[in-house]
């Protein structure tokens, strides 16, 4: 504001530079010896107009883990079932992640029969657990009950014979897995002349080196930011898989079953909740709590509460592609970020929901800075004109647990 007032004051008092050879009318009177007024610089109305720089959201979406060497390792430990039937690899599927197998410790490695409430027609006392959705059970139909089986403990006589021939214990173990992170580089340079620096300083009061340094550093950081966001887009699983007309697409007019806009937008909120629940089941780390979406989707989430008859929904989002990319918190738990480069004129809008915990280790994607952004100055050996350059090195890797079981 102070700079604007000073520029405005200078503009109001500024006048064209003319020859003051012999008074105000020098060069025009009959007795003037000069050839006429000498034109100067045009008055400056607005010193300089610049584009708004893009905002960065990568640090809010990815876990940040600095590197102290050009390469690094990330280790992960998985609990495993031991597969005695596979001689090439004793390690079976991952344990302590999906639903526990209720039959594993209640039977021998030879899959002996479990006893207890034995009723084959209802799936009790079976040798292996099967089925994952108890909501599909129908007490009046035996055929549907067998699809959901229950493994139970072994008989006492079987337990006493464990370890003998044909009665081996079931075993468990763990595996240590690793992912290699390798630092990659980004670099940009700029050149300018001493004359340019002098004129820019005289007319606009700006430092040429500082302005070019700001452009280079902002471009590098913006590119890293887009790398993170596009990586998230490419690796995210497709949501809206069930109870929709077309898997992977939530149609507001068809799938929300709403009569007017607010009901449709609330249907979108319910779908976001379902996708957040799916993240909790897929990761076993936590429910989805971050939303990255286009501005139209964020506006729809806002209107779901603002347009309601009783606006009790906490959805006061600040949706602006040119402002802060963090729009706000919805329902008290979802942090909403806007992708400022999403095509809002497109017919199809989108959202990506993800999870990031309180710990920097608790994220699906890791950004690993190695060498921070460094500035280098030089002078041309023939032109003696200044040059500047920026370099940075960093790694980017997925969470090792994201590779499945």
UniProtKB/TrEMBL annotation:
Q: Where is the composition biased (Low complexity)?
A: 105-116
Membrane-spanning regions, if any? none
- Region (Disordered) residue ranges read 101-141
Comp. bias intervals (Polar residues): 123-141
Q: Which terms in the GO cellular component ontology are assigned?
A: virion component
Zinc keyword on record = no
The name this protein carries in UniProt is Uncharacterized protein
């Amino acid at each position: 504001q102070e700079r604007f007032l000073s520029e405005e004051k200078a503009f109001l008092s500024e006048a064209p530079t003319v020859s003051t050879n012999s008074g105000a009318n020098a060069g025009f009177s009959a007795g003037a010896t000069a050839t006429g007024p000498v034109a100067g610089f045009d008055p400056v109305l607005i010193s300089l107009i610049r584009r708004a720089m893009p905002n960065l959201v990568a640090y809010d979406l990815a876990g940040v883990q600095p590197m102290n060497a050009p390469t690094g390792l990330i280790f992960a430990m998985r609990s495993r079932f031991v597969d005695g039937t596979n001689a090439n690899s004793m390690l079976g599927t991952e344990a302590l992640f999906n639903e526990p197998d209720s039959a594993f410790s209640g039977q021998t490695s030879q899959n002996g029969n479990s006893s207890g409430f034995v009723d084959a027609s209802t799936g009790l006392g079976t040798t292996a657990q099967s089925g994952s959705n108890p909501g599909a059970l129908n007490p009046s139909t035996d055929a549907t009950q067998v699809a959901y089986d229950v493994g139970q403990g072994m008989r006492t006589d079987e337990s006493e014979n464990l370890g003998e021939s044909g009665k081996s214990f079931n075993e468990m173990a763990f595996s240590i897995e690793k992912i290699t992170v390798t630092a990659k580089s980004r670099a940009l340079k700029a050149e300018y002349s001493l004359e340019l620096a002098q004129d820019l300083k005289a007319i606009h009061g700006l430092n040429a080196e500082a302005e070019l340094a700001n452009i280079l550093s902002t471009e590098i950081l913006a590119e890293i930011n887009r790398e993170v966001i596009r990586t998230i887009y490419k690796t995210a699983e497709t949501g809206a898989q069930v109870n929709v007309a077309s898997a992977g697409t939530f149609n507001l007019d068809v799938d929300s079953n709403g009569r007017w806009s607010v009901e449709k937008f609330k249907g979108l909120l319910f779908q976001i909740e379902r996708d957040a629940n799916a993240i909790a089941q897929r990761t076993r780390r936590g429910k989805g709590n971050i939303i990255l979406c286009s501005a139209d989707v964020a506006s729809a989430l806002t209107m779901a509460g603002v347009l309601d008859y009783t606006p009790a929904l906490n959805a006061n989002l600040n949706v602006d592609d040119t402002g802060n990319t963090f729009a706000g918190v919805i329902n008290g738990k979802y942090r909403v970020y806007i992708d400022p480069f999403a095509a809002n004129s497109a017919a199809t809008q989108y959202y990506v929901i993800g999870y990031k915990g309180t710990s920097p280790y608790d994220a699906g994607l890791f950004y690993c800075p190695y060498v921070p952004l460094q500035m280098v100055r030089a002078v041309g050996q023939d032109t003696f004109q200044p040059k500047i350059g920026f370099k940075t090195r960093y790694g980017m890797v997925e969470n090792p647990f994201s590779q499945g079981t």
